[in-house]
Design brief:
The protein is built from 17 helices and 10 strands. It is α/β, with parallel strands linked by helices and 360 residues long. It has 2 domains: 207 residues, TIM Barrel (Alpha-Beta Barrel); 69 residues, no CATH class. Strand 4, helix 6 and strand 5 form a beta-alpha-beta unit. The two termini are 31 Å apart.
Length: 360
């Protein structure tokens, strides 16, 4: 198990990069520069982005490795945040940020995207045990129907293919994806799941759905989409009652800038209304699917009544921040765990504080 887990983590980044990060982290800690970055966090709001928290063995089975954190690592991360930071849901943290109220400790918000059941089963209890509350951005169609999100279906298709099948799929997509050849992940025609997902994200929503349905129909035995269970509306109500914030993340998780005005309005308002109905309270926060937005999308989010919206661009949110495009720092096991599967406490500090952003 340990060796296999290490192989999964190693595949996400070269051992050389991992060693280099370790050397730089140690240097930052010993010189006090990392502590300086942590003190700088007090001048604004740091928003952390998570997706899924799963038992360690399940992390190995989930094809989208950048979206999952093992339970044990998440427990250690939440304990560190509870000891060193003031943790608030985004809604409350934004209010404090705008008020200009100073804080003795860095202000941090913990967010989760999509609405997976493990957020309720694993993440929320761990946070609550430390006295922490977070923000859960849920894709309302996923919660309403339980049908797997498009990227989980696409990942399952890819995961079930052999190398010849993957090459054929990519050949069909390559001509229509301008960035595919530029971002090719490895030599000798070997494609990564990141190449597959990037190509699909460039497609129009209807075109992508038709393509995935066509590929699935051609398989003798379509792969099962495991580990992609959604929360239920009752779970959202319980999270809200426990003091967490429940916010919107669209209905179907499309790439919003590609939508027509009418489709964009529907994604923004229907998801808002569905979540509000489930928690019996207003919904003031939104999270752009895949972090993609433009001026039109941001204006539509504001017109839909959202007081803030989160993107995926890393950085510290200062008092002057545009609330319709808040920065977030992604927390992944590839960058916050050692190659042997143990949590990397120093690496987590480097990610949260923005120390690593300064030398990437």
């Amino acid at each position: 198990m340990g060796r296999e887990h290490a192989m999964v983590l190693q595949s996400a980044g070269s051992s050389l990069k991992r060693r280099l990060r370790r050397v730089v982290d140690l240097a930052g800690a010993s010189t006090g520069f990392m502590s300086l970055c942590e003190r700088r966090m007090r001048s604004g709001l740091t928003i952390l982005m998570y997706h899924r928290v799963l038992p360690r063995t399940h992390c190995l089975d989930y094809p989208l490795q950048a979206l999952v954190i093992p339970v044990e690592a998440f427990e250690q991360q939440m304990a560190w945040l509870a000891s060193h930071c003031e943790v608030l849901p985004v809604r409350d943290a934004v209010q404090q940020l705008q008020s200009g109220r100073s804080s003795a400790r860095p202000k941090v918000a913990i967010t989760f995207d999509d609405g997976y059941a493990d957020n309720f089963e694993h993440a929320a209890p761990i946070m609550e045990a430390q006295g922490l509350r977070g923000t859960f951005f849920v894709t309302s169609g996923f919660v309403e129907t339980g049908a797997p999100l498009w990227f989980d279906r696409a990942a399952a298709l890819w995961d079930g293919m052999g190398e010849p099948g993957k090459a054929k799929l990519m050949a069909r997509l390559q001509s229509g994806c301008a960035s595919l050849e530029e971002g090719m992940g490895s030599e000798f025609g070997h494609f990564r799941i990141e190449d597959w997902m990037a190509a699909l994200k460039e497609m129009a929503t209807n075109e992508r759905d038709r393509f995935l349905q066509e590929v699935t129909a051609q398989l003798a035995s379509p792969p099962e989409v495991g580990l992609a269970v959604a929360m239920q509306p009752g779970h959202l109500a319980k999270l809200h009652q426990a003091g967490h914030e429940v916010a919107a993340h669209s209905v179907t998780h499309p790439i919003l800038p590609t939508l027509s005005d009418d489709a964009l309005l529907e994604e923004l308002t229907v998801s808002r209304d569905q979540v509000a109905d489930w928690i019996h309270d207003e919904v003031v926060g939104f999270c752009y699917p895949n972090g993609d937005y433009d001026d039109r999308v941001a204006a539509a989010a504001e017109a839909a009544g959202y007081r803030y919206a989160c993107a995926t661009t890393p950085g510290l949110n200062l008092r002057t921040a545009n609330l319709l495009c808040l920065h977030r720092r992604s927390v992944t096991m590839q960058r916050t765990m050692h190659a042997n599967g143990r949590p990397d406490a120093l690496g987590f500090r480097g990610e949260v504080s923005g120390f690593r952003e300064r030398w990437r």
